[in-house]
Amino acid sequence: MAGSYSEATLLGPGDDAAVVAAPDGRTLISIDTQVQDQDFRLEWPNGYRTTGFDVGWKAAAQNLSDINAMGATATSLVVSLTLPPETPVSWVEDLADGLTAGIKDLGATRCSVAGGDLGRGREISVTVAVLGTLDGGPAVLRSGAQPGDVLALAGTAGHAAAGLALLESAENVDALGERERAFLDLQCRPRPPLEAGPAARTAGATAMLDVSDGLLRDGLRLATASSAAIDLDPAQLHVLGEVLRPASELLGTEPAAWVLNGGEDHGLLATFPADVQLPPGFTAIGSVQALGSNESPSVKIAGRPADAGGWDHFAH
How many CB atoms are located within 10 Å of the residue 237 CB? Predict the structure, then answer.
């Protein structure tokens, strides 16, 4: 992870602490952890072996996405690794390569790894903290959605969940076709639309969040923060599901649950005033509604209550 650094990293690895610039006067910060056998397996039932590159890439992607969801731009990462003593050095080197490749290939051109720490433990654990800047603008919060706003999605929905289902299946990874393998790859190496966050802020997004736990669960979070109801368009949900047909037919299931409850695509769910032209990459998938008397924040589909499923970190 050594090498060139972004302009925000004034002093990188080698001292007791990194020095990073904060020209905006404010710094966004977020942190996320991946733990072996909780967030990933070294070997999956379908035969796929998780590489260090996969884990490094995903560590970059999920943290960069959190900054993106605020309408901001990532500037620096710091990494903490806990590793069993038998972990091959090559696996750790691959992780470093995956982390830096994720930053570069996902388009986080103003970000670099500023430092980190290494420790010993019983399982692999990768924690990344990310810093970001708003470049003088306001942050886009979850709490700003207004009745009449358009609900829009940037990125994919259900692709990573389809990939997880394939990893957990008996369908040998080497026998997967190109279309099915693409879903598996997006589970292992997500591709958050990093250009969409700042574009949404510039366009006037009223609320936004990273879809890491599914449209229903994260939609409910947005609705709750904004004291509103969200109504999803079933026609658009159908379109999102049809893309997943290659995996659903192989596994003999329907794609609707993946679309609604699948996490880890790291797309953006945002709301915009009805008269605003959606930025490139966003597609309208619903609307924001006012709460009725004695009505709690909720997610609906065509006006009917939806089961707010999704990924729960403490239930799996």
Answer: 22
